[in-house]
Amino acid sequence: MDDRFADLRVIRRLLNESKTWAFVGLGDDPSRTAYQQANLLQNRGKRIIPVHPAAKTVLGEQGYAKLADVPVPIDVVGVYRRAEFAGEVVDEAIAAGAGAVWLPLDVIDEVAGRRALDAGLDVVMDRCPGVEWALRRAE
């Protein structure tokens, strides 16, 4: 995988400086990774925005059916969909004017990642926000 998708400076900056994370694929099931990661980041002061076709309220935050419906600027889009759907979400993040996309462990789409980089977004791929938080906050 391209080293640009695991740049420690980008990871550190996104964890430390971002305010609003849209979690695509976030539903209300606490056993799911998206829920756990959104909860962790919310507990660390980030605003989370659930993006899921059901548009449910999750973790006390209003959900939206798609990124284009989110009415506030998005710093980071967490792509909690299978890898074969990641490119579509990355394109939606670009169109929505997000600042970055974060593809968690085992969600890899280098072609979509390069599209995001070319569009000026930061990209983190195949990394867990919770693990990176534990590692990078101490640095």
Notes on the protein architecture:
This protein is of the alpha/beta class and 139 residues long. The protein has one domain (3-136): NAD(P)-binding Rossmann-like Domain (Rossmann fold), CATH 3.40.50. The chain is 37% helix and 16% strand. Helix 1 packs across helix 5 (129-136) and helix 3 packs parallel to helix 4 (110-118). The protein is globular.
Q: What is the count of helical runs?
A: 5
Give the helix/strand class. alpha/beta
Radius of gyration: 13 Å
Stretches where pLDDT is under 50 for at least 5 consecutive residues are: none
* Helix percent band: 25-40%
Q: Averaged pLDDT, please? A: 94
Number of domains: 1
Overall geometric form = globular
CATH class bucket: Alpha Beta
Q: What's the story with the biggest beta sheet? A: 5 strands, parallel
**SSE succession:** HEHEEHEHEH
Strand order of the largest sheet: 2-1-3-4-5
